[in-house]
Amino acid sequence: MSPPAGEMGSTSTNNIPRWLQLASSADHIDSSLSLLQARERTRNNARKATRPQVLPSRVRQVLSPSASNELSKYYSISVGANPDNLWGNRYSNIEPYDRTRVIVGGAVGALADGSVNSTVASLDGRYFNGSWVRELFGGKWWIATQAPLPQTSHVFLSALLQPIHRPMTLDSATSPPIPSRVRTVVQLTQNFESGRRKADAYFPSKPGQSFIVPPERGCTAPSLQVTLLESRTLKESRCIQSKLKVSIPILQSNQDRAQSVIFTHMLYAAWPDHGVPEEEDKESLLSFLRLVDETNKNTSSQDAVSDPDPPIMVNCSAGIGRTGSFVAISSLFRAFGLFNMSSLSASLPRPLIKYPHTLPQSPLGPLPKEFEDDPVAQEVDSLREQRPGMVQREEQLVLIYELLVQAYSRRGAC
Asked: What is the spatial distance between Cα 197 and Cα 228, in angstroms, rounded to a whole number?
């Protein structure tokens, strides 16, 4: 799908770098869409071979036996597709890759006082439909996940209550990543959209109120209490920002006081499912992007901070379309200095920071040479390597190019 004629060129090109002018042309975007779709079809065929209900013969029509075995192992979703874990998937066709899935440690795991449960790093931890994803160009880690279901709210909150360990990468082989704790949750979907449920509430709507959240069936972890401390509406960012506390009630924690953590929940209210924000809402999305980045770096509510910019947990409904788009935009804004407009330079041909060496090489090989100067296509393809279907819709890919153009065109006024 191409942008409407003239849409990408409606702003002044004086401030827009040459690579972006070329990459945001209708012909290039069409080529990018075709290439990315073809590569995702190959991944999807490989994923199908690891679903219990799908016969491998259906995939062998597309892949040779040797290629099928190699790709299916790399793109396996066998854990999420296991019948024992289907309860944890909001949608029946969206599961995390085995190699990038977030594993939530045992009954409670490591808590705010620093004590560590030995099950935290265990591969036998609780199932959670979430994926570790790292920005290709910005370098930041995220947890991309679906909107919690009633039966998955406990494991979702448990991932906030305990410290988390980012995956080992090539650049951390000699220095293991320090434990971190999620303190910002971004939600890109309303609970109801067009009359259909897209997310379930897991915290109350009035400050001072609490929900008691029980664990999933078969889990012996204690129930959790989540309390809304405060909430405010930020009109410029179309955002409802809430501060919440999640804790183990004293009677269940075997402690003299309740163990708890505080996190910030940020709901962006102007992004429809299977689509993109309206033209008049794109400025609010730019504002929201910067607000999320600033909020996650704010350590004022933390007693002790070992990571000044910890991973952010982000979800829409399925955790792929809007979620992938938001991560991709954030990565490119971070890499090109677009979060801090005063430092922006239109003359930069490439991102300020580049981390491709820290991510595994795709078994599909690199993108063709004509996409070497298109970081948007590279970023989206990299995200799809880490969670299926990221940046799900054609118009969402176009949105990424548009917002980059818009951000550069606005720099003269900053």
From this structure: 22
Tell me how far apart the alpha carbons of residues 394 and 376 are, in angstroms, rounded to a whole number: 13
- Which residues touch 33 (CB under 8 Å, ≥6 apart)? 1, 394, 397
Chain CA centroid to CA 32, Å: 22
* 29, amino acid identity: I
- One-character DSSP codes across 281-313: GHHHHHHHHHHHHHHHT--TT-SS-S-SSPPEE
CATH code, 18-413: 3.90.190.10
Q: Which helix (H) or strand (E) holds 325?
A: helix 321-335
Q: How does residue 410 score in pLDDT terms, banded at 50, 70 and 90?
A: confident
Residue in the structure block whose two tokens are 């040459």: 18
Nearest to 145 by CA among 380, 278, 280, 313: 313
Give the pairing type, strands 312-315 and 184-187: parallel
Average predicted confidence (pLDDT) for the chain = 84
> How many angstroms separate the first and last alpha carbons of the chain?
32
Highest mean pLDDT among 235-244, 250-259, 341-350: 235-244
- Among candidates 296, 316, 334, which has minimal Cα distance to 182? 296
Question: How far is it, in rounded angstroms, from Cα 74 to Cα 99?
Answer: 8
Which of 110-119, 167-176, 282-291 is least confident? 110-119
CA proximity to 374, closest of 31, 6, 7, 2? 31
- SS3 at position 169: coil
- Cβ within 8 Å of residue 261, ≥6 positions away: 112, 160, 161, 181, 183, 245, 246, 247
Residues 6+ apart with CB under 8 A from 107: 117, 119, 219, 220, 221, 222
CA-nearest of 47, 155, 173 to 102 is 155
pLDDT in tens, 47-102: 999 998 644 444 444 555 455 688 999 999 999 999 999 999 999 999 999 999 99
